[in-house]
């Protein structure tokens, strides 16, 4: 029985690094911004399509449909799913360039509290009246 609701095998760092290189990023520590336009220019969707068989090995059978009809938006979702287990997330923020709104994305480290709330030290004050 898998421990994850999405993956039958937890992704290893090698597949994550291959996925990041398709996005034009070096590793999880790479904090460069990227946009959907950048992904179109670098033909990232076709690079992820080439990796489709390898990626499908990790997904549960009912979740493999997420690899169908790939677009820039879907491959960003796939990236988010694969890096989450390593304590990273891909955040998007809206940016306006010459009056045109566009989303820019960046990899960041999740706060340790988000990963495991039991690790966070919390102080409580109880008062009895």
Could you explain the architecture of this structure?
- This protein is globular.
- The chain contains six helices and three strands; from the N terminus they run αβααααββα.
- A hairpin with a 2-residue loop joins strand 2 and strand 3 (100-109).
- It has helices spanning 13-22, 36-41, 44-50, 52-56, 72-84, 112-115, and strands spanning 34-35, 88-97, 100-109.
- A three-stranded antiparallel β-sheet has the order 1-3-2.
- Helices cover 35% and strands 17% of the residues.
- The chain is an alpha+beta fold and 129 residues long.
- The protein has one domain.
- The model has no long low-confidence stretch (mean pLDDT 85).
């Amino acid at each position: 029985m898998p421990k994850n609701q999405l993956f039958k095998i937890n992704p290893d760092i090698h597949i994550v690094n291959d996925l990041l290189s398709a996005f034009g990023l070096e590793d999880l520590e790479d904090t460069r911004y990227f946009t959907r336009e950048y992904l179109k220019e670098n033909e990232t969707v076709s690079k992820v399509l080439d990796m489709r068989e390898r990626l499908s090995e990790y997904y549960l059978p009912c979740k493999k449909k997420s690899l169908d009809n790939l677009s820039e938006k879907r491959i960003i979702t796939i990236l988010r799913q694969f890096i989450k287990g390593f304590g990273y997330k891909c955040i998007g923020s809206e940016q306006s360039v010459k009056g045109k709104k566009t989303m820019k994305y960046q990899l960041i480290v999740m706060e340790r509290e988000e990963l495991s709330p039991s690790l966070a030290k919390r102080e409580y004050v109880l008062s009895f009246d």
